[in-house]
Amino acid sequence: MSQWWEYPALPRGPGERAILKAKAICGGGRTGRLAKPAGPRRSLQLRGAPTLRALTWTFAPTPTSAPAPPAMDSAARDKMQPALPSGSSCPGPEWPEQERAEQLARGAALKWASGIFYRPEQLARLGQYRSREVQRTCSLEARIKSVVQSYLEGVKTGVRQLAWALEAVQGAREALGQAHVLLQGMAEAAQTLEPLREQVVQHKQLQAMSHLLPRLRAVPAALAHTQTLIDAQRLLEAYVSLWELEQLQEETWAPLGGLELPVFEGLGPLAEALGQAVEAAAGAAGRLAREDPALLVAAMRVAEVDAGRTTSLEQAARDWRQRCLRALQEGLERIHFGTPLQPGPGALAEWLEALRVALPAELAAAEALVAPCCPPHYNVVRLWAHTLHSGLRRCLQQLLEGPQLEAADAFTLLHWALHVYLGPEMMGSLELGPEADVSDLEPLLTLENIEQLETIFVAKVQASVAQWLQKALDGDVAEWGREQEPDTDPSGFYHSPMPAIVLQILEENIRVTRMVSESLQRRVHGMALSELSAFLRSFSDALIRFSRDHLRGEATAPHYVPYLLATLNHQSALSSSVSVLQPDWVAPGALAPVEAALDELQRRICLLVLEALLAELQPLFAALPSRRWLSSPELLDDVCERTASFCQDFRHVRDPAVQLLLAEAERTVVLQYLRALMQGRLVCRGADERTQAAERLRHDAAQLRELFLGLVRIWVSRWAGVSVVG
Known about the structure:
Layout: H1 14-26, E1 42-45, E2 56-59, H2 74-80, H3 98-116, H4 126-217, H5 219-231, H6 235-253, H7 267-283, H8 285-291, H9 293-307, H10 320-337, H11 347-370, H12 380-401, H13 407-420, H14 447-478, H15 498-512, H16 518-552, H17 560-577, H18 592-621, H19 627-631, H20 634-646, H21 657-679, H22 687-725
Antiparallel strand pairs: 1-2
């Protein structure tokens, strides 16, 4: 191939660039750079007017080794010569701006010539300039011809190489066509060889079968022998025999192309029978660890060896290891939680007590007996603890979803699950290792379960407490109509066990819940205060009915007032002992409703007692004022006598209720006395009668004062005597 030329460096002056560009265009050359040729460089310098700078053209002579270009005739030259535009002596424009470049070149040449030959003395050197320009023109033409010759050589070489490439492509196309024809022939030949190939495959299968035939004949006997080993619980030997049969099946499977022989049809059921035997041994791990640990170890070894085995047969994995783990868990749950809990009184408490003893013993046996028979990665103690925990949790959930528990069962279950199960007697025992820790698992009872049990317990206890309180009230009310006076204590005060029974029932229920949780204790405390308030309201209603029936004569009580005074002692006993229902953790003021109910009960009892007193004094006060009253103190003496007789029973009333009762009695008698005087009518006939009336009033006031002061002294002396005796 020809070498490319390197274009000369462009002149720096505008005139030089225009002249060279015009000459290059007229000669058919290019402006630009060409590749440097190999060989020495020669420089041609143009010397001219001062405005024309030296122009250096770098070119290489035509290599002597390159063949000379062939002579071109006129016709070929005309074909290669581009068409000339009209009015132009140069070849056609190679660039759109050729005409403008030519004009600029001519203008620059004229400008250069006018500058050179501006003075007359310079015209003498015109011949020198002409000859110099002729030489320069000839040099440029020679260089242009050399460049064109190099271009032509390169084009010729490229055309020749393209012809060679075309011939190579045509040869490759012919070769590919021949190969395609050969491949079609080979495909037809392969189709004809297909029966032969099938016969070869059958021959190979028959050859493999002929080699394995003695072993295949022994397969039925081996199957029966393996089944016998399984029935005899010789699991390791049975697994070895099964493995040999499966290896034989694998050896026949590949040569036969995946064809299953009928002789191996019983192999799958046999493997399943062995798996069931291994699973059954794992399910009875606790018993076998004590009675036959070798059988348990054999089952575990079979499961582990089978887990690490791989086969080329397209069979599902047996996964006997997971089956063993599931059997261990199911067997353990079946032992302790398989039998449903029979409902009955005390059945739940007995079952929980049995679990309290059995579960730690089971964990200890697992650590001492079962764990050495199993692989270390089974984590037998941890598996035992988690299985027992999950089974117990599921059993308790089923229990709570069934019929509603009784109060005792709900309390027992709450106390057992929250305190006993995780306590030192069971899962928190120091004898158990850290693997038996279940504190990080889900609790036996969820918050919803605890809420449910607490609600059941509070509701049941509330119903029971209400029933007991009603029985205590009914028993006390039944005594109000007796022929005997109320019972008294050694000090002579009216006494009944009812207040102590009421407070004991409530206090015991509050105290016993302290064993479970603070939330349950708060619930029961609120329930106790509510029931006590309801009891006090029922007590007040019973007193009202008792008084109404007595006053109407429907059920006359022989000792009406003494029993009213006895109830006042009941109220005092309740008021003095109600503080036992306020533990330290209870907020102040929690007993305010109960205390208000007690005050209301006290007020109601005092009112009924005073109504009975007024009923006795009313006939006497009806005679006030009168001539009899004015003339004689007998009327007021009768009032004082009856009042003193009525208040004699006050000595059986405890302090401070007796003080309140005496004060209210004095107030009631005085008000009734004044009301009778104000409502009555007495006309004094003179100053003597008015003086007599005034004296009577002073005398009555002193007599009434002396009456109640005497009653107070009697009560004080009695109370002092009781205190000394106490």
